[in-house]
Amino acid sequence: MVHTITISDYIRLKPVVSLIDVRTPAEFAQGHIPGAFNVPLFSNEERVAVGTTYKKQGREQAILLGFELTGHKWAGYIKQALEIAPNKKIAVHCWRGGMRSGSMAWALDLYGFEVYLISGGYKTYRTWALDQFNHTFQLRVLGGKTGAQKTKLLKELYILKEQVVDLEQLAQHQGSSYGTLNRMVQPTQEQFENDLAYLLSQFDPQKAIWVEDESLTIGKRCIPHGFFNQMRNTIVICLNVPLEQRIAALVEEYGSLEKDFLIACTERIRKRLGPEQTKNAIIALEEGRMADFIRLVVYYYDKTYLNGLAKRNKELIFPYVTGEQESLTTIAQQLIDFANTISAKVTV
Q: How many domains would you assign to the chain?
């Protein structure tokens, strides 16, 4: 049986119902619903051919071409669906709930699947996703200079059952010129938004959400404005970590990266770092003096961070001094207690 459902219905069903996206690989790569499996009805080239036929010869000829192109593929589609959903409960969508998803839903229903057809298709998910950023969240922003181990603390907060958004993980970028770590590939802007929206929808709106202090862009990805504006207008807890401790943490994180990669990244910030500082940083790299390299570069990033902090409401900035010998788990628990104390006193 085929059940027509909304995207909100699917979000509630998601833990027990798998989802297949029958759009082309190119459409899927541009952006998809988190957790969806791509079972394309047409290849990228086939979809272009069907679309061209529709425009030049009409709907009926396009449908005939579609059947010619997919006729030998239906057994394969069903086998894929069985691998994805062995319980034979499956949701289906295309771009806007048209013939592609309708055809797949019909075939799977005929085979014996319980099929959920998402009304409006992927287009409705995009509308739903963008709407999530207009909701009001109880954000707790974790700030601090480069090397304060904010990302590691977010992970500790997550372990302690706090609600956490790791924007750098979602964007696959550490937020600096060196942010890809020479291995990460950023998702499309569309997919970044899709993943963030879905994550936010899973949270309890009555509870706090921890997020790292970021600029508007993380690498080439932009934080949705509705969410970013809330980040900039809520309390920020600034970790005060000694410089030498931060340098040691950064050496551990970046010390194993390829020298050529680090040099190329340093060259990209030459104008902001300054010619002399850039020259000395590259010499330190070439001579294997990683701590000296970090010390030279971190000066620029500290200055940039402080400039951004100066644009915030001073009444919402709360310094927090960490102990050098304290474990990250201990600091995370202390941050929770500190944030609860602040929230009880401050009205955002």
A: 2
Distance of alpha carbon 162 from alpha carbon 156, whole angstroms: 9
Q: Taking a C-beta distance cutoff of 8 angstroms, is the pair 113, 90 a contact?
A: yes
Q: How far apart are CA 322 and CA 95, in angstroms?
A: 50
Query: What's the one-letter identity of residue 46?
Result: E
CA distances from 334 to 212, 267, 327 (A): 17, 39, 11
Same domain, yes or no: 201 and 338: yes
Instruction: Clarify whether residues 200 and 295 are in a common domain.
Output: yes
User: Token pair of 42, please?
Assistant: 């047409």
* Of the residues 130, 160, 184, the one at which a domain ends: 130
Q: pLDDT at residue 347 above 80? A: no
Chain segment 167-192, per-residue pLDDT in tens: 999 999 999 999 999 999 999 999 99
Buried b (16+ CB within 10 A) or exposed e, 37-69: bebbbbeeebbeebeebbeeeeeeebeebbeeb
**What residue spans of 14-119 are helical by DSSP H?**
25-30, 44-57, 59-70, 74-84, 99-111
Averaged pLDDT, 34-44: 97
273: helix, coil or strand?
Answer: helix
For residue 325, pLDDT beyond 80: no
Coil, strand, or helix at residue 36?
A: coil
Q: Which residues pair with 92 in a beta bridge?
A: 20, 117
Active site residue 238: no
For the record, the structure tokens of 338 come out as: 């500190």
What's the pTM value of the predicted model, to 2 decimals? Answer: 0.94
CA distance 323 to 328: 10
From the list 94, 222, 238, 265, the catalytic residue is 94
pLDDT in tens, 290-319: 999 999 999 899 999 999 899 899 999 999
| Residue 187 structural domain | 133-345
